[in-house]
Write a structure and sequence with these properties.
- The chain is an alpha/beta fold.
- The chain is 36% helix and 19% strand.
- The strands form seven sheets. Strands 1, 2, 3, 5, 13, 14 and 15 form a seven-stranded mixed sheet that branches. Strands 18-19-17-16-22-23-24 form a seven-stranded mixed sheet, with helices on both faces.
- Helix 15 (413-423) links the parallel strand 22 and strand 23 (427-430).
- The longest helix has 19 residues, at 50-68.
């Protein structure tokens, strides 16, 4: 063991890869390398070549190593690596591990008809949640596999392996086909009730279980070490531990210290390309309104995800020719910025909706209304997440529990104030801006040392880095119930008619 051990947490997201070099003892960030991805597709299509993820991982690690040198550390100090990746994406490989086609990404909505058909085939939403914790929607991997079988049958028939994005990268690192319960639970093939791939659901979708990776016990389980080829490509030594890794939302929870060895039943809201609200709990979720995921550490992670968050609001700002911070409260205006369809509520065919225009309406109010529409959409399911944790959302203790605000939007003044105004809750803003990578680093440290990843991350937070010990706390303000009721009313009345 090096005197000052270092771990690498890789965040392979929709748009880019980040490789965070982290002190394995204190959680102190030492260096970060970055590289962009390319997403293609029009309409509902969203695809990426998995090989670009591997190339981006190599580039991000190389950049991090150059920055790491300034801290006095080097490649020989690295003891572990873990990947946290965008969830749900479908990667199909040939017998040599080469992608047969571009991966279908989580926000590809073409598989909405297949998701609806799968839901019906098993007997409805309750039948699915009883087994997987989740109901198929367009984003889920099983629905994408069905789309592939119907629209690209040659690729489906030629597939020798089916992987999630983070699995694909982990296999490139360690030469082992492995995943974790957290990311596996986002496929709609994994039974959170049984803790294993569900043979009946695989049969329903015509998928041979032998094409799937082995599910490790946790995201921090050591599944192998860097292969000689991967070590050479990354400029790292032999013997570096490789963790099973997990999905990006599960890694963010680890980075926040949410889990069995940390905080349970404490909600978090992530403002990124998508907007998500989640909490770690020991209660297995089974609500059709939520994704009832497993967590990376053996607990559960009930989660609600909206497709349209920061990217959609930024698009509205661009259309109006405004800086994203040049927003004002929407007044009478309502904007539902469903530019890519929507996942929660399940409206894959929806487009953006604007109503309430007056002669006095300003561009700034239109932008502010887009913020409000995005925030209300994700906050509407916060109570459902808390109920899935076995909590009473209206209870005094639960209602006053702080909301941890993370993601790119948490660095935006108007995002923070809109969430604060519409939630009526106190907010905690962690100091770290790379929670997914931080969580992945904790998984890497767990693989290298055998310690619990959530416990490690919670300890790092207490040292003033990532969690509550290194956070800004904002007190609650009175909830803007008028804006909440106005937006909710439009959403309820438009669903099924204007929103499809």
């Amino acid at each position: 063991m090096p005197t000052n051990p270092v771990v690498i947490g890789v965040d392979s997201s929709t748009q880019s890869t980040k490789a965070a070099f982290t002190d394995a003892v204190t959680g102190r960030p030492l260096a970060v390398g970055r590289a962009p991805h390319r997403v293609s597709g029009e309409g509902g299509a969203r695809e990426s070549d998995p090989e670009t993820w591997w190339a981006a991982l190599r580039e991000a690690v190389a950049g991090g190593l150059r920055e790491l040198a300034a801290s006095g550390a080097g490649p020989s100090d690295v003891i572990g690596i873990a990947v946290a990746g965008q969830q749900h994406g479908l990667v199909v490989l040939d017998g040599k591990g080469v992608p047969l086609r571009p991966a279908l990404l989580w926000n590809d909505t073409r598989s909405a008809p297949q998701a609806a058909a799968l839901t019906e085939a098993l007997g409805g939403p309750d039948a699915w949640t009883a087994r997987t914790g989740s109901v198929p929607v367009a984003s889920m991997t099983a629905a994408k596999w069905q789309w592939l079988r119907e629209n690209d049958p040659a690729a489906a028939e030629a597939a020798a392996a089916v992987r999630l994005p983070h699995d694909f990268l982990t296999e490139r690192l360690a030469g082992v086909a492995a995943t974790d319960p957290g990311d596996a639970s986002g496929t709609c093939w994994y039974s959170t009730a049984e803790g294993a791939w569900d043979g009946g659901l695989l049969d329903l979708t015509g998928l041979d279980a032998r094409l799937l990776p082995t599910v490790a016990e946790t995201g921090g389980t050591r599944v192998g070490t860097l292969t000689p080829a991967a070590a050479a490509e990354l400029g790292l030594p032999d013997g570096v531990a490789v963790a099973a890794g997990t999905g990006d939302n599960m890694a963010a929870a680890v980075g926040l210290g949410l889990g069995g060895a940390g905080l349970l039943n404490h909600p978090a809201l992530s403002l990124g390309t998508s907007g998500t609200v989640f909490a770690a709990t020991r209660t297995r979720p089974a609500s059709p309104a939520l994704a009832g995921f497993a967590a990376a550490d053996g607990t559960y992670l009930p989660l609600a995800c909206t497709l349209n968050c920061t990217q959609a609001v930024d698009k509205v700002a661009a259309l109006l020719g405004l800086d994203r911070e040049a927003a004002e409260a929407g007044g009478e205006l309502v904007v539902l910025p469903y530019l890519d369809g929507e996942r929660t509520p399940d409206l894959p065919g929806a487009a953006g909706l604007l109503t309430g225009l007056r002669h006095t309406t300003t561009r700034q109010q239109i932008l502010g209304a887009a913020y409000e529409g995005a925030v209300v959409t994700v906050l509407r399911v916060l109570d459902e997440v808390l109920r899935a944790c076995g909590e009473d959302p209206a209870g005094t203790d639960t209602a006053g529990r702080p909301l941890r605000l993370v993601g790119g939007g948490a660095r935006g003044r108007h995002w923070v104030e809109t969430v604060r105004r519409l939630s009526g809750r106190p907010l905690i803003l962690p100091s770290t801006t790379e929670l997914v990578a931080l969580g992945a680093a904790a998984l890497a440290a767990s693989a290298a040392t055998g310690e619990d990843a959530v416990g490690l991350a919670a300890g790092w937070g207490d040292s003033g880095h990532g969690g509550p010990g290194g956070a800004t706390e904002l007190p609650a303000v009175p909830r803007d119930t008028a804006a909440w009721d106005r937006i909710s009313s439009v959403l309820d009345r438009a669903t099924g008619t204007l929103l499809g």
